[in-house]
Design brief:
By secondary structure, this protein is of the alpha+beta class. The chain contains 20 helices and 23 strands. The structure holds ligand TTJ.
């Protein structure tokens, strides 16, 4: 640990202040990197990489190489000009030492128009140094190799020295550091996927920069990856649409620079057959989850220009309303990336770009492009307008359907579907609803249940795939209407959990492929329409047994997995018994269904959880999307969402 009371002979009073600065970072790391959890640990890496990205954006670096070794030492290396080595007039020590020891000093030494570093999580390289056990910098420039080393949270261990000579054409900066386990109490172990995904994302967001990612740890991920996208966010959109059926091959792309504000704008978009939207916005390479002025400008311009074109070409009838922003969102995949010299982030989580001047900049650059593009590509223009028109029609139909559902079925006033065999209790905390595939199993469940607290809703056959259907269709579907009525808590954005009538929603299906498909459809539906119920842990999957071991009339044992069957076989030794393999729930009578699947004392329920909503969403799109191959791979490789579904 560094300590301000340690005074080295060669330190001036300025240097003491430096140490105090870094000591403050160590005392309250959360103030600088938000958290000392794994997220904070990874911020160290982003901060260092951002400095190299700045050098690349300034046009001097071309390749950025990031390596992680067995001891979780991170190395970031670029081929830029090399950090400045001369004495800094303000601090009296080398500029590179200043960069790593003065808080927020980094920005003053940059060459580019924007600093990616110093942005939302850009805290300066000195913060990384302060939170490292040790940190080393190697600089190649002017045919010389320079080296400086810090330890114990930023104290100079080796002042800047010349260690040798090199080819004068070889230039660049290399930083190696080991995060301090005294600060990162949860550990200093990096996550492969987090690094991989973010590095690939940075490659998409910064076209032409060559990123190399070396995972040198001796585990299953060991290896090297190279990312370089000449098409930048155009290729990002193609990547996001790889599992979709696109409506046209072209990705619309524009970039531009607004001289008066120094704002750079880059936009790429494409439409697919899906009904959902995938639009992601960034400022200075930082994801802005809550949008802001860049997104506002984008949507405004998209609808303004498309409506103007559609009117001009008589593609919207004279008396018909304009296409709305919502109409234009269906099936849209877009990346909006802006660079701003002084970004302001707003909102509780600072996820929204606040600079008002960004909107007119986007309007101008994107608007000019889109106007010209539509004129030059009338076929694409027509496809987009047709898609939006059908979204508009669907939206009106959905509105009508919702109103009629409300009227017909009277949500909220206690009208329940006739097929629902409700329980006696009105205390949701003990009530359970079993959603059972097929009428015959439904009958057994109805007879076998404890009707005090267990309700049964039998569904006939497969429910609608909500991923591939629009909202009005969804409300036409009787099974879906019944579930909405039975749950009683509203749906989608209007959910009131306090009105939920059952605190256990249990999906029961056969343990075969059809059953798995129905479970997946059910989960998709619940995910899209009742996400809070999954998040709240109210959704379960019942695990009926696969085998019954019996002797004559007597049941010896139920087995829920193949492993259990193997164990059971061993337990029985020489005893004679028969094995029945259940092919469906219909083979069980009411009392067997109670014993194995309904009785809280013996049943196995698996709670459905969402570890990562975005991940789950993608899993669903992939599972339910048009493309067969990724779906197959997913099912073969992992069962991420409902681990126990036995995919
Ligand atoms: C500044 O202007 C003179 C030439 O060098 C410019 C510069 O700062 N370049 C630079 C910094 N390239 N790379 C960095 C850098 C790289 C890493 C990995 C970490 C840090 C803090 C800076």
């Amino acid at each position: 640990m560094s300590n301000t009371s340690i005074k080295h002979d060669n330190y001036t009073s300025d240097d003491i202040q430096v140490l105090e600065g870094l000591e403050a970072v160590r005392r309250r790391p959360g103030m600088y990197i938000g958290t000392t959890s794994s997220t904070g640990l990874h911020h160290l890496v982003w901060e260092i990489i951002d400095n190299s990205v700045d050098e690349a954006l300034a046009g001097y670096a071309h390749t950025i190489e990031i390596s992680v070794d067995n001891d979780d030492v991170v190395t970031v290396k670029d081929d830029g000009r090399g950090m400045p080595t001369e004495i800094h007039p303000k601090t009296g020590v080398s500029t590179v030492e200043t960069i790593f020891t003065v808080l927020h000093a980094g920005g003053k030494f940059g060459g580019g128009a924007y600093k990616v570093s110093g942005g939302l999580h850009g805290v300066g390289a000195s913060v990384v140094n302060a939170l490292s056990e040790w940190l080393e910098v190697t600089i190649h420039k002017d045919g010389k190799v320079y080296f400086i080393r810090f330890k114990d949270g930023g104290q100079v261990d080796q002042k800047l020295i010349e260690t040798g000579e090199c080819d004068p054409h070889t230039t660049g900066s290399t930083v190696r550091f080991k995060a301090d386990p005294e600060i990162f109490k949860e550990g200093t172990i990096y996550d492969y996927k987090t690094l991989y995904d973010r590095i690939r994302q940075m490659a998409f967001l910064n076209k032409g920069i060559h990123f190399i990612f070396n995972w040198d740890k001796d585990d299953e991920h060991k290896g090297s990856h190279s990312f370089c996208y000449e098409g930048g966010i155009k290729e990002y959109v193609q990547f996001l649409n790889q599992n979709e059926t696109v409506l046209f091959e072209d990705v619309l792309y524009c970039d531009g620079y607004d001289n008066s504000t120094s704002i750079a704008v880059e936009i790429a978009l494409q439409y697919n057959t899906d009904y959902n939207e995938k639009t992601y916005s960034f400022c200075n390479n930082i994801f802005t989850p809550d949008g802001g002025m860049h997104i506002d400008g984008f949507r405004q311009t998209l609808s303004r220009v498309i409506n103007a074109y559609a009117r001009e070409k008589n593609l919207i009838k004279k008396d018909d309303a304009n296409l709305t922003n919502d109409d234009l969102r269906e099936g849209l995949t877009a990346i909006i990336s802006v660079k701003h010299p002084d970004p302001q982030y707003e909102g509780q989580t600072k996820g929204k770009l606040g600079n008002a001047e960004v909107r007119p900049a986007v309007n101008k650059i994107f608007g000019d492009f889109l106007k010209r593009y539509l004129l030059e590509n009338p076929d694409v223009a027509k496809i987009i307008i047709e898609k939006a028109k059908s979204a508009s029609e669907a939206r009106l139909a959905a509105q009508k359907a919702r109103e009629s559902v409300r009227r017909k079925d009277d949500f909220g006033s206690g009208n329940l579907p006739t097929k629902l065999k409700d329980c006696a209790s009105r205390d949701p905390s003990i009530c359970e609803i079993y959603i059972v595939e097929g009428n015959s199993a439904g009958g057994s469940a109805q007879q076998g249940r404890d009707s005090n607290f267990q309700a049964v809703l039998p569904l006939r056959g497969k429910i609608l795939n909500v991923e591939k259907a629009r909202e009005h269709k969804i409300f036409d579907n009787a099974e879906i209407r019944m579930m909405i009525q039975a749950f009683g808590c509203g749906y989608k954005n209007d959910i009131d959990i306090s009105k939920l009538r059952y605190h256990k929603i249990v999906i029961v299906t056969d343990a075969d492929v059809d059953g798995q498909h129905i479970s997946t459809l059910m989960l998709t539906f619940l995910y899209r329409y009742f996400k809070p119920l999954i998040e709240g842990g109210y959704v379960y999957i019942a695990m009926p047994p696969l085998y019954k071991l019996f002797k004559g009339q007597k049941t010896l044992r139920y087995c829920y997995t193949d492993e259990e069957l193997e164990l059971a076989k061993r337990d029985f030794g020489d005893e004679k018994y028969d094995i029945q393999r259940y092919k469906g729930l219909g083979e069980m009578d009411a009392s067997q269904l109670w014993e194995t699947t309904l009785d809280p004392a013996h049943r196995t329920l698996k709670r459905v959880s969402i570890e990562d909503a975005i991940d789950a969403d993608q899993v669903f799109s992939m599972l339910m999307g048009d493309e067969v191959e990724p779906r197959k791979n997913f099912i073969v490789e992992n069962a991420h969402f409902a681990k126990n579904l036995d995919f």
